[in-house]
Every structure is written in structure tokens, then in C-alpha cells.
Design a protein that fits this description.
single chain, alpha/beta, 7-stranded parallel β-sheet, binds nicotinamide-adenine-dinucleotide, binds magnesium ion
Length: 423
């Protein structure tokens, strides 16, 4: 096709923490990549009209966006329509029901026909012929259908949405094998493991996931029981969306990452270990059969793993800061406390079981996190609630996608019931 030196990227969840970091990476690649151009072809925000418009306006003012290296500099400052994304999606239909929102979209130079509403529009974007790469950056199970659609369409998928693999890792891997696409991790731990494996050309014996320990790494159980949403949202090393920030505080994030690693790298749960590394510089490690352990290090900045998922196998300059070893620094590793962080054992258990376990635990956790953020349950109820809901369900070893979605709905309802939060 024409203009193939421009890579069309669909970023779903563009207004979020990963989404905005991805836009920054794309703009930087356009300035620095001599071999190709990058275009944000499609973008989505759930109901955040202002957030998405701000991104559209930034790109519309960027002369390098959407042009190939050959075009660049030839027509500087020309008002190229390729700078504006071809497709904008608001997955929440209510978001843009006000006439003022539509007016604002019009003023930003957007053609109304290019703006789509509702969750189905995410799926349409994910499988659109024009899309070369899908960045799956929606939070939670809401990202599942679009990610699966992109895998089915054989796209390159840069996966931030770990919940997709937690809910349906087995099915996604089967679809990937059938359709010949690629699933590249954005999650920093999995990117680190991917980089170590790719550079050693060997099968791993063990994956060692590092965890910062979150805001409650050295907190007592009673302090955790009394934690407010504000305490739990204050992550020491990473700036992230609210759901993953709470997951980091309970260490359910590491549990989800154990499950993600199990499917992504086709290892068994007993080949995975977790170690606490408070500085978040070593993003994870891989042990090989000869006992050699490789690690990947970089400052805690998601733009590095996002960019690698886009440009792999190429490495290019990245806007993330560099490590400075001229300054004294300390990198420490300590064992994880399974007693204060019961999420870890739950993660290993779900990774071992497969089947319907991931969908149930994920749904229960999503609802429990919302209830905690709304101050309806205590912090130390989140993980026990997820376990309780898991234990209430009848395990099935090889569910279909529609069965998993059914169980997701059931587990959400069950979580509200067992915490006394039915509206
Ligand atoms: P965020 O809350 O900052 O952004 C979430 C995005 O999803 C927003 O664009 C929002 O509009 C959209 N969204 C929310 N609910 C939706 C729904 N029901 N339907 C469609 N879209 C919806 O979240 P984030 O921190 O960017 O995380 C996104 C994903 O990336 C998560 O799965 C998270 O686990 C993963 N991740 C994030 C980080 C990080 O540093 N933030 C690191 C590793 C992995
Ligand atoms: Mg991570």
C-alpha cells in the first residue's frame, strides 16, 4: 500500500496514563526515527472529551505527526489532515450527548463521521485494515474485546491491558497462534523478561518478577487496615491510573502479573518468583538453565517499554530519562512478605489453575477496588473478597470467551453481594 513508511497506530485508552505516554513516544519517534513515520490513526477516551481533544490538538500542531521521513521537511507547516486521527472513539455513549461536546469536536477540525460511540466502536478500530499496531491501554476487563479482536485480525498488539491475559490468557494465546499476529508486552516487568529472553535466544528456567512493594511495603497490618484511598494511591516510584495504583498497594498488581507472565511466556506457575525491589530500576530477571540470570534496567518510566513494543526489534532513542551511575545508588532486593500481601499466593494459585479462575478473581478485584475507592470497604478487605468470590465459583478448566464474560458478570454481582453493597 501507499505511504507504508507511515505506521498507523491505534491507541485505545489514549487519555490514560499509558495512553498519554504512548502519544509522547509517537511524537518523539517522528522527530528521531529516520526510517519510518508514525501516526496516531485512532484514539479513544471513555468519556473524557476534553482529555482526548487536548491530545488531538497537540498532534494537529505537530508538523511531524503522520508524515513519512521523506515528506518531513518538504512541506513544513502545511495543514496536513494526517496529523488529526482518522477515528476517535468515546466508548461511553453518554459522554458526548451534550451538543457542546459535539461543537468542540467540530472546532478541533474533526469530521463528525470519524467520531464513533459505544464499546463496539473499539472493536471496529482494533480490526480496521488501516491499523498496523494496536496499543491496548484501556484499564480492566473493558479492554478485553478490542484486544482479542486485534489478535484475531493478526495485528501487532502492544499490550498494557494485563487484565486481558488474566481473564482469557489461554484463549488469547490460541488465537495468536492461529492468526499470526504478535503480542508484545508493555508492562515493564514483562518487557524486561521479553528483552532478556530475546537477547539470549534460550528458553528461560525461571522468571523473577520484581515488585516495588508499593506504598505499604513496610506498613503493619493494622496500618493497612486503616489505609485511606489517598494513602493507597500514593505510589512511591510510579505515576499510574487509580486502579493499577490500588492494585500495586495490595500487590494484586503483582498477582495479575504472575498470571500475565504465565500466559505470555508459556511457563508454569512454579517457574515464576517475586522479589521486592523498592527502587524500580531492575524491571525483572530471567534465569537460564546454566544458572545465569539476566536483568533489564532503566529508570521507572513507561515510555521505554511502550516504545520497545512499538519498534521491536529495533531500538531507538527514547524520551525517558537515563540511569546515571556516576551518582551513588543502591539497588536492593528482599523477599516478598506473603503474610501481609495475601494477593501473591492468590496470584500463584490462579496461574496454576487457569480455566475460569482468572476471570473471576479479576472481576471481583475490579469491583472491590471501586468499592474501596468509594470508601465502601476497607483496604484489607479487597484481596480476601477476591479470594472468597473465587472460592464461591464452580471451576471450569476450558471455558469459551462468552462463558468467561458471563462469569465476569456473575463475579461482579457476587462481590457486591458478599460485601453488602447491592444497590
Ligand atoms: P488510566 O486509568 O490512567 O487510563 C485508562 C484508560 O482507559 C483511559 O483512557 C480511560 O478513558 C479508558 N477507560 C476507562 N474505563 C473504560 C471503559 N469502561 N471502556 C473503555 N475505556 C475505558 O489507566 P492506566 O494506568 O493507563 O492503565 C491502563 C492499563 O495499562 C491497565 O490495564 C494497567 O494495568 C496497565 N498498565 C499501566 C501501567 C502504568 O504505568 N500506568 C503500567 C503497566 C501496565
Ligand atoms: Mg508492571
Amino acid at each position: 500500500p501507499q505511504n507504508r513508511s507511515v505506521t498507523n497506530v491505534a491507541v485505545l485508552g489514549t487519555t490514560g496514563s499509558i495512553g498519554t505516554a504512548t502519544v509522547d513516544v509517537l511524537q518523539n519517534l517522528n522527530r528521531l526515527d529516520p526510517q519510518s513515520g508514525w501516526r496516531l490513526w485512532a484514539a479513544s477516551g471513555h468519556r473524557n472529551v476534553d482529555g482526548l481533544l487536548e491530545i488531538v490538538e497537540t498532534l494537529a500542531a505537530d508538523p511531524d505527526h503522520g508524515s513519512s521521513p521523506i515528506d518531513r521537511g518538504v512541506t513544513p507547516g502545511c495543514n496536513d489532515s494526517r496529523r488529526i486521527p482518522e477515528r476517535l472513539v468515546f466508548s461511553d455513549r453518554q459522554a458526548v450527548s451534550e451538543p457542546s461536546a459535539l461543537d468542540r469536536l467540530g472546532r478541533a477540525g474533526l469530521d463528525r463521521s470519524n467520531v464513533r460511540f459505544g464499546p463496539d466502536a473499539l472493536v471496529d478500530v482494533a480490526r480496521a485494515d488501516e491499523v498496523d499496531v494496536l496499543v491496548a491501554a484501556i484499564v480492566g476487563r473493558a479492554g478485553l474485546e478490542s484486544t482479542v479482536a486485534a489478535v484475531e485480525a493478526g495485528k501487532r498488539v502492544a499490550l498494557a491491558n494485563k487484565e486481558t491475559l488474566v481473564v482469557a490468557g489461554d484463549l488469547v494465546q490460541k488465537k495468536l497462534a492461529q492468526n499470526g499476529g504478535a503480542l508484545l508486552p508493555v508492562d515493564s516487568e514483562h518487557s524486561a523478561i521479553f528483552q532478556c529472553i530475546a537477547s539470549s535466544h534460550a528458553k528461560p528456567r525461571k522468571l523473577i518478577l520484581t515488585a516495588s512493594g508499593g506504598p505499604f511495603r513496610s506498613a503493619s497490618k493494622s496500618a493497612m487496615a486503616a489505609a485511606t484511598p489517598k494513602d493507597a494511591l500514593a505510589h512511591p516510584t510510579w505515576q499510574m491510573g487509580p486502579k493499577i495504583s490500588i492494585d500495586s498497594a495490595t500487590m494484586m498488581n503483582k498477582a495479575l502479573e504472575i498470571i500475565e507472565a504465565r500466559w505470555l511466556f508459556d511457563v508454569s506457575s512454579d517457574q515464576i518468583e517475586v522479589v521486592i525491589h523498592p527502587q524500580s530500576i531492575i524491571h525483572s530477571m530471567v534465569e537460564f538453565v546454566d544458572g545465569s540470570v539476566l536483568s533489564q534496567m532503566s529508570p521507572p518510566d513507561m515510555r521505554m517499554p511502550i516504545q520497545y513494543a512499538l519498534t521491536y526489534p529495533r531500538r531507538l532513542p527514547c524520551p525517558a530519562p537515563e540511569l546515571d551511575f556516576r551518582q551513588p545508588s543502591e539497588l536492593t532486593l528482599e523477599p516478598a512478605d506473603l503474610d501481609r500481601f495475601p494477593a501473591l499466593a492468590l496470584g500463584f494459585e490462579v496461574a496454576r489453575c487457569g480455566g475460569t479462575a482468572g476471570a473471576v478473581v479479576n472481576a471481583a478485584n475490579e469491583v472491590a477496588v471501586e468499592l474501596f475507592l468509594d470508601e465502601k470497604i476497607r483496604f484489607d478487605q479487597i484481596v480476601p473478597t477476591a479470594r472468597k468470590v473465587l472460592e464461591c465459583h464452580t471451576f471450569e478448566p476450558s471455558p469459551t470467551l462468552s462463558r468467561l464474560l458471563e462469569l465476569d458478570r456473575w463475579a461482579r454481582q457476587e462481590t457486591r453481594l458478599c460485601t453488602g453493597n447491592v444497590d
